[in-house]
Amino acid sequence: MDPEHETDEGMVVALRRSYARLAWWIVRLNRMLELPRVAEPPRSQRPPRIAVPPRQPLPPRPE
């Protein structure tokens, strides 16, 4: 194997490792800075139902 090629592979591995660490820190920082989601307050009453007229049967179809 070419010694220069081995050096390049080592640098690629080191760069990948560095970028992986950077990505991990970015994700961790984003999670820390993310605002907590406020839970919805529990409903004491059900929302009112919309009044809908009852369905009328359809007349028979002419043949």
Description:
This protein is mostly helical. It has one helix and no strands. It is elongated and about 90 Å long.
List keywords for this structure.
single chain, mainly alpha
Can you summarize this structure?
With 63 residues, the protein is mainly α. It has one helix and no strands.
Taken as a percent bin, the fraction of beta residues is under 5%
Mean pLDDT: 85
| Integer-rounded radius of gyration | 32 Å
The SSE order reads H
What's the oligomerization state?
single chain
Q: What is the terminal separation in angstroms?
A: 87 Å
**Main pleated sheet:** none
The gross shape turns out to be elongated
- Helical residue percent? 40-55%
- Which stretches of 5+ consecutive residues score pLDDT under 50? none
Number of separate helices: 1
Give the SSE layout:
Blueprint: H1 3-33
